[in-house]
Design goal:
heterodimer; A: 118 residues; mainly beta; seven-stranded mixed sheet; four-stranded antiparallel sheet; globular; B: 111 residues; six-stranded mixed sheet; three-stranded antiparallel sheet; 9 strands; 0% helix
């Protein structure tokens, strides 16, 4: 069974750094892109970008380029989404998903809620 | 790039059919057969309902169908059931750096 399990909720202060995780199982982790999607409170889905675990090739949405970073650890089938300096506007639910053909996501993690508040 | 355009709300009675539209441009929806639709219940992760315009993943009821004409894609939910009440999002591949666009979402209410 394909599963993506994300790390737990985080509460951070503005300016702090953060790395959340997404662990894949039940499939060949290095053979499928992993995508990240943001959902701000009460709002819609926003595509942040994708990373290919085999070689860490990453594609960022212009809206997120430079503010977040994707990475992977193939040895433990885990993808990461990282911030070096959080802002209050980063408060949102973040989903990872297995991304196929560059176009759609068939399996999703349960989401990680990130709250940034002073 | 702007989000794809969806109506904010749609509704129908049990047993009826409802269609949700998703309008883009020739650079996304109209340019590729890579439109997908997701269902999201409150507090839950999105679920893939349709991919590549009209394909259903295993386990998705055949009451859900997708289509596309020019720059507008559509999701039709037939024989509405109470559990279909949810938010629905379309998305499209844009061909730019594997970039994907989402629609703003449509809240489907089953009356």
């Amino acid at each position: 069974e394909v599963q993506l399990v994300q790390s737990g909720a985080e509460v951070k202060k503005p300016g702090e750094s953060l790395k959340i995780s997404c662990k894949g199982s039940g499939y060949s982790f290095t053979s499928y892109w992993i995508g990240w999607v943001r959902q701000m409170p009460g709002k819609g889905l926003e595509w942040m970008g994708i990373i290919y675990p085999d070689d860490s090739d990453s594609r960022y949405s212009p809206s997120f380029q430079g503010h977040v970073a994707f990475s992977v650890d193939k040895s433990i089938s885990t993808a990461y989404l990282q911030w070096t300096s959080l802002k209050a506007s980063d408060t949102a639910m973040y989903y990872c998903a297995r991304h196929l053909g560059g176009s759609y996501s068939d399996y999703w993690g349960q989401g990680t809620l990130v709250t940034v508040s002073s | 790039q702007s989000a794809l355009t969806q109506p904010p709300s749609a509704s129908g009675s049990p047993g009826q059919s409802v269609t949700i539209s998703c309008t883009g441009t020739s650079s996304d929806v109209g340019g590729y057969n890579f439109v997908s639709w997701y269902q999201q219940h409150p507090g839950k992760a999105p679920k893939l309902m349709i991919y590549e315009v009209n394909k259903r993943p295993s386990g998705v009821p055949d009451r859900f169908s997708g289509s596309k004409s020019a720059n507008t894609a559509s999701l039709t939910v037939s024989r509405l059931q109470a559990e279909d009440e949810a938010d629905y999002y379309c998305s499209s591949y844009t061909g730019i750096n594997n970039f994907v666009l989402f629609g703003g979402g449509t809240k489907l209410t089953v009356l």
